[in-house]
Design brief:
Oligomer: homodimer
Strand order of the largest sheet of chain A: 4-14-13-12-11-10-6-5
CATH superfamily of the largest domain in chain A: Queuine tRNA-ribosyltransferase-like
Distance between the termini of chain A: 42 Å
Strand content of chain A: 15-25%
Largest sheet of chain A: 8 strands, parallel
Shape of chain A: globular
Number of domains of chain A: 2
Low-confidence stretches of chain A: none
Structural class of chain A: alpha/beta
Chain lengths: ~375, ~375
């Protein structure tokens, strides 16, 4: 994997990540395909709308279809028929947010499946092994994602464990080669809750291990948005310039813009698809709940300027109707549209960084996005 | 509307129906888009897979989005962004199958909505008025669809009422012109339950009214399949050669082939989409429940010979996984595939009628479809 910073404007960066499955232009938003499918969106539609990389989830894919199926099908790219890059998180976050009765030790984490209560044990070696079976272009280390709030002592000890696990993941990846002939990068994950001293320690320890990229984890877990911005900025500034920076699980269009400005290159979030399925549509001029009565006979597209299939072909009134009568097509169109809008924002952000007017563009687009003006 | 029989082979017919929204080549299967959407399939996908006409449902569209919305949006074609022909049933069937507390009189039928219990009154005039607001290329008369079994006396009286309603629908259509500048044909519906004498009376009375086409109603309501074939054959034979014949609500691929042979031109049924959403896939070599464990690592497409997106790009194992984890994409791919298979059968049937070897082809394809050989 090769990362190049093409241009910076203050701390904002435009770059490219070259993988064996193609180039990712940053800043990038990665649609979330937890179980090997971006919900309600076809792979050919993802490609059409310009998705350059999608996310898969190690915890979910480990439970279903399972490592043996993934291996026998030649990895996730072939299984889901997606030829572009894939990033997988390590499953750490899901173990801590979805499963029951998790027990953490130096060795790893024992948890019960949220599906059937069956007992499982994730170690650093194990999550690398699973991600080798998945064949993701970017793998993530096993980490403990601390909840918010979290006391300083716990956050410190937890981060130290995360760092030790990161090192073990790296060693495991060195021992267990990639399975499908393409390179799989491994990213470290910075933790430290809301404590700058721990974040700094985390960065220092991880950078010493020389990962191919660094994620900022443990944010967007309930802390105030301003804290999130401050910690993302603080952490990004400590990270090496020559490596990609990935802020996990963030966020709204506004969050993305603020964090691009603060030096983040990569984002993932379920908001565009999940909110879409709940009838919440993002537009260049604010958000709309498409089920509102005001759209009953509104023949305008969701977003005049949007070039997605939903906006080119259908009215707000029709999409509202689809949600009213619970037609699956409503979920499809809303997801398509929101992802298109997200990717448009990222593309524009990149364009403006390259032309050195990101800051002023960001100011105007934020006003538009927030106020619908 | 103009109907031309291009070729017959025994009683099987290949023809074309010319409408203001384009030509429909018969025999034809019409995907069902009850509420203005063929469930889980995009309109551009319907066009791609060769759907020449889709069905809308008067009862459902009347309840939601309602006549005022449809009118203000310029009719169903524009509302749902579908430029090819649309047929709407009259709502009669749904009134009798879905709604509560229906009360039938000479005037029409009073019923309570299955959605909110609100009270509504459908008359022949009313269903024409609704279908004018929808703007379907082919409208259906209001009928009473008798249940199975049904005693001779009730079937006779019911059919006589259906015939009187048919006449009133025709008069209503003459009084109330089409709203959107394109012609809307009106089809009569033959009833008579399982009684040939009543079916014959029904045909005679309706043909005297000179409809632009005739549907065979009241079948596929629980009678033995052999009865359905016999009654379809009997009724089709009585209908005028120069008008299209539409067998409502039928059926499986086998049913379609048998009824094409017996002289039917048009079909609609929820089976391909509904069964698809329940993981039942039709193939050229039999049916499969894609959730079966045998497909866990099956890297073959659902149907080798099928050219749909699901079969070109995905394995049985992946589609099985999508159903296992309840991903919407599973519903999308299964619906796409089943509709593609249905339309392929109709296209092949037509091709073989045109080349005068339908009977022998039908025999071999039926063996394949049934036995998976």
């Amino acid at each position: 994997m090769r990362f190049t910073v093409e241009k910076t404007e203050s701390t904002a960066r435009a770059g490219k990540i070259e993988t064996d499955h193609g180039v990712i232009e940053t800043p990038i938003f990665m649609p979330v395909g937890t179980q090997g499918s971006v919900k309600a969106v076809e792979q050919r539609e993802l490609a059409d709308l310009g998705a350059q990389i999608v996310l898969g989830n190690t915890y979910h894919l480990y439970l279903r279809p399972g490592v043996e199926v993934l291996k026998s099908m030649g990895g996730l790219h072939r299984f889901m028929s997606w030829e572009r890059p894939i990033l997988t998180d390590s499953g750490g976050y899901q173990v801590f947010s979805l499963s029951d009765l998790r027990q953490i030790s130096e060795e790893g984490v024992t948890f019960k499946s949220h599906l059937d209560g069956s007992c499982h044990f994730f170690t650093p070696d194990k999550v690398v092994e699973i991600q080798r079976a998945i064949g993701s272009d970017i793998m993530m280390v096993l980490d403990e994602c601390t909840p918010y709030p979290c006391d300083h002592n716990y956050a410190k000890l937890s981060n130290e464990l995360t760092v030790r696990w990161a090192k073990r993941c790296q060693q495991a990846a060195q021992k267990l080669p990639a399975a499908y002939g393409h390179h799989q990068a491994l990213f470290g994950i910075v933790q430290g809750s809301t404590y700058k001293d721990i974040r700094a320690e985390s960065v220092k320890a991880l950078v010493a291990l020389n990962f191919e990229g660094y994620a900022i984890g443990g944010l967007a877990v309930g802390e105030p948005t301003e804290s999130m911005y401050e910690l993302a900025e603080f952490t990004a500034a400590l990270l090496p310039n020559e490596k990609p920076r990935y802020l996990m699980g963030v966020g709204t269009p506004e969050n993305l813009l603020e964090c691009i400005e603060r030096g983040v290159d990569m984002f993932d979030c379920v908001i565009p698809t999940r909110n879409g399925r709940n009838a919440m549509l993002f537009t260049r001029h604010g958000r709309m709940n498409i089920t509102n009565a005001q759209f009953k006979t509104d023949s305008n597209p969701v977003d005049e300027e949007c070039e997605c299939y939903a906006c080119r072909k259908f009215s707000r009134a029709y999409i509202r109707h689809l949600f009213q009568v619970k037609e699956i097509l409503g979920l499809q169109l809303a997801s398509l549209h929101n992802l298109t809008l997200y990717l448009w924002i990222m593309k524009e952000a990149r364009r403006h960084i390259l032309s050195n007017d990101f800051a002023s563009w960001k100011k105007s687009i934020l006003l538009q996005l927030r106020d619908g003006s």
